[in-house]
Amino acid sequence: MKSLEEIHKIRKEKRKELDLRTNTKADTREKHILVCHGTGCTSSKSPQILENFKRILKEKNIENVRVIKTGCFGLCAKGPIVIIRPEDTFYANCRPEDCEEIIQTHIIEGNVVERLLAKDIDGSKVQKLDNLSFYKKQKRIALKNCGMINPEEIDEYIAFDGYKALEEVLTKWTPEDVIKTISDSGLRGRGGAGFPTGKKWELTRAAEGTQKYVVCNADEGDPGAFMDRSILEGDPHAVLEAMAIAGYTIGANKGFIYVRAEYPIAVQRLKIAIHQAQEYGILGTNIFNTGFDFDIEIRLGAGAFVCGEETALLESIEGKRGQPRLKPPYPAQAGLWGKPTLINNVETYANIAQIILKGSDWYSSIGTENSKGTKVFALGGNVNNIGLVEVPMGTTLREIVYDIGGGIPNGRDFKAAQTGGPSGGCIPKEHLDTPIDYESLKNIGSMMGSGGLIIMDDTKCMVSLAKFYLEFTVSESCGKCTPCRIGTKRMLEILEKLCEGNGTKEDIDKLEKLAINIQKSSICGLGQSAPNPVISTLKYFRDEFEEHAVDKVCRALECKAMAKIMIDPEKCKGCGLCQKNCPVNAIEGEGREKRAINQDKCIKCGTCLTSCPFKAIGN
Amino acid sequence: MKEEMINLIIDNEHVQVPKGTTVLQAAKQAGIDIPTLCYLKEINEVGECRMCIVEIEGRRGFATSCVQKVEEGMVVHTNTPNVLEARRVVLDLIISNHKIDCLKCIRSGNCELQALARKFNIQDVEFPGEIIEHEIDDLSPSIVRDFDKCILCRRCVATCKNVQGIGALACVNRGFESCISTAGNNSLNDVNCTFCGQCIQNCPTGALHEKETIQEVWEKLKDPESYVVVQTAPAVRVALGEEFGMEIGTNVTGKMVTALKRLGFDKIFDTNTGADFTIMEEAHEFIERFKENENLPMITSCSPGWIRFIEMNYPDLLPHLSTCKSPHQMFGALIKSYFAKKEGIDPSKIYVVSVMPCIAKKFERQRPEMKVNSIPDVDNVITTRELARMIKQANIDFVKLEDSSFDNPMGEATGAGAIFGVTGGVMEAALRTAQDVLTGKDLENIHFEQVRGTEGIKKATITIDGKEIKVVAASGLANARTILEEIQSGKADYQFVEIMACPGGCIMGGGQPIKSSKIREEVDVKKLRGNALYTIDEKSQIRKSHENPILKTIYAEFLDQPGSYRAHKLLHTTYQRREKYRI
Amino acid sequence: MHDQKENGTCQEVQANITQFMQEIFHTYKKQKDNLIPILEEVQEKFGYIPKEAQKEISEFLEIPMAEIYGVITFYSRFTLEPKGKYAISVCLGTACFVKGSRKIMDRLTQRLNIEPGQTTEDGLFSIDETRCVGACGLAPVFTVNGEVHGKATVKMLDTVLDEILEKEKTVEK
What we know:
The complex is a heterotrimer of chains A (619), B (583) and C (173). Chain A has 619 residues and is of the alpha/beta class.
């Protein structure tokens, strides 16, 4: 247990020690080597990099240099990432064997290891993280501490004003003050639906009942989305602090974090964070000697996307199949075990403490008229800078794709972006300049969603994309209500027919009819939004659907059944590269002979397409 | 306090209903019949099938009328083109995943899905596709599951879990693969199913039905070597008429007997007389235990689903069960002993068919305990529904039949035997005899109102000869569980407990005519059928089992007295601990 | 209808399961919401959820076995049969899909002749679909016993499979 005075002392002293992390001109002889330990970098061996650094430093008896594991820096495409501070040198794509050189050249000799510097969009090598165009247009609020602190050290969190908002609220604010500030800030739910957060807190506070609960929805299930995971991995205390503030505000003393078991690192860090907070007396009974009790339990999601739907999540916490409940009643009225329950998503919580500390005016000055603050996106797909970005609401898609994302690789063209994952819709080229906020996205038939942002180039078939999302929805549908259980399956079957070249124009009409009716008659958000990818691709790429149905052509060559991969004898130079790369030995010909594909053997994997230096292989 | 009323508009009709009413019920009041499938009043109100969707002005998407409560000023539309299209799509989707073999389906003509398909005139499935096929489970003696006909309404799951407190069925898998199944997809025969058959009663389609055994009856009726005796349970006579379009709760005893005669049974006996024997044995058993204060409370044993339940779930309480066989088993044993001897028929030639409101009886008759000298008491159990089918197959115009009476020498039963078919009836019948035996008088007060009525649990304290007897009658297995928990924890000190597996008793048994959710919304089937039994009792000449002259004769000539060695051999049984999951 | 395969569960295994279940029951209250955490532990320990464990949980939490079976079959992390010695998961998250992970999966099912969720007869391999392992920067990705293989190609998959088969051959010898 720590008294408030002790926590203040930790904040002051630790902050001094960590000054070099934020201040490039810090007056110190110390250096911190920050090694990203997000899931992406971890799976490409960053723990070994960390070990190597530690070992080498020890071997060489170098003092004043500390190696720190941090959360995600965001630029996953260039991982594993190592940053050396205070000078803020950014090393990309590091391997364990690079540690020796970094220590020797950078730490001992004071020179930059040129070859490990990241290349920016224009090809120039950039030394500092802040100079990378990837970071220039970003504004980090929810991700403030990610990549900055060691998420497994509560002191580091405290050093950067951690738990100050909780202290403030518990000692000086009434619950009404909190609700007013959150409401005034304009913060809306970051899980996707965009319900005003202050309003939700107010409703839950107003609900009758002595036992209430605070729940954090960390069941981030959108394929290709990893915002919440990065926050939990990089800054778990921010979520705990916000949940405690929420508990005080609505009158709850128990919180649950429902997190995917597929996120072992996030789970581990949350466990450590909860344990540390309990040891400090920041969670538990009589917090900061104010008489307020609050504790948090972790519940693991066992692999069901639908549990991201709030009522399904509640069912799952209660130990049941994660099948959504009918609403009303809403969780604010009857949630966990029928008690009023506040459910917010990770990113929403990650904004709370800063809104409390910096004020609602500060927060509402960022963003657009109806969408305040920032939004974190997991940028993926056919874009150069795959990673995590946080931008002010209102940033355009073009800025994200080209300025931050560095454009489309391999000189390809942008075709569409998908927001909101399987519940969202696609945004075609003509809407690249749409400002990203809740209303604008809705107006063009997409949705904000939780933050998955997948970029597709012109080699992507939109029918197949719609099929991909329907496959996902069908396999993740809980099976409770008819339209979603059978209807999405029927939609998928029609899409499969189209992709196999067996579809008709009537099938497209049927698809549309099903889509509209499923949207309107399903019970929960999953079912109601399942048809969105089809509706939006039909809206913008109907011609592609018709080509599949009528002409039996897939212009992107993605639909295998319609594709017949052939080698153009005019263009083939007989180099044999395709043959070498073919996994099933389907390519025939010897020496300098022109090659030909044995269609019986060909599995249409497309390996030859990409391996041909003469672009001789095609449809 | 005056009930708060809510005003709303449904399809341009002004409706005023009490607060808390659902839109579906409010619409009904306005003469608007919104279609439903998964909805089953008080049992399954979950809004899953989406047939009952309606438009409410100012709402995004459709509302679920079976769950949605009315609100002041609400404007509801139940039949806009949008709603109709969505509803039709939903119905089409359900049918697209349904084994359509109405011609050979046991529920054809009494199927809620079929009725909707007719209403919407579904001729071709608009959205056809893959149909998941399941193996038919017909391993149990009582229930057949054909899940290719299941529409996932989950009424059976709710019934099994909430009404009966069993949970033999649950929804398994996810999404399109979802199905209603058992632990490990095993047969109902090998899991904790009690064979009460309430799931069948609540299934809107042919996915769950009884295991039909009438073919064997037909064969025995044609076999000159066999002496085929039929007996009919009390509850059958007040429900059989429903299968021929007669009103619920019509007593058709006379017509039923005539029909059975026409079918060619050699003798037609009344299980009610069997019930009188049960009372004789059970009342005396109770008096013994009560005097000795041994194994109290004594719990009745005539409901075989209930017996399976206690054997599986509370084996430690088995000594509390009365050792009496159920009435039709007792009667079967007497037919093959006393009657056979008297008539000079070789017992092995006698084929006893019991017509029962119950499908657990199909299991019961196969129990090894239900044999005397390796001869089974009963050879076949058919349900009320199966008997109706036999009558129809024999081209008998049931409604027009004249009345006739049960055959002698085992014919006349008492009113006490009749009320065996309704919850509280066994208790009442037993108390009538017990109080006379205990007091040695012929008491006039034979109505035990405290144990009458359709409630699931009825408790009472009865004073006989200055002694207080605490009794309770429970029906439905969830209620049974409540009582057993009380007994096990020592919280209750009952002396006599009556338990019937089916809510309401045998009149609502798993073999009775199936009533659609719509009918059950409108009328109280339990009450109508129950009242019919009480009327039979009222009109009976003799209303106490021990006064039945046939009983007097048989005890004098054959059995000696209740609880005698021979009575035990023929009329009593034993129980066994039973594994819940044989998987 | 009956699961023949598991009838042969030897007593030793069963005793093992019973012992483990009794151990973990000490750490849980008899609350229905503990079902999923308990199943997680069993899955973790045995690599699947044995029938015997389901029975014991059913007794302990007083939840009908059918309902437990319903929960197990609802959540994709729970399995009813043991995973292969080499559990291969292909990420079919959007980022990986866009980068062609479907081709990896197709090749895998073709080579091993099993579908996702199944285990090869020799118990060597099992295949699963996963949604985003979080290595989107390395898309497409597949994992073998949790080890991530990023920027995967059909050829790379073949190499990995061949290496495993080669290794197993030597072990056999």
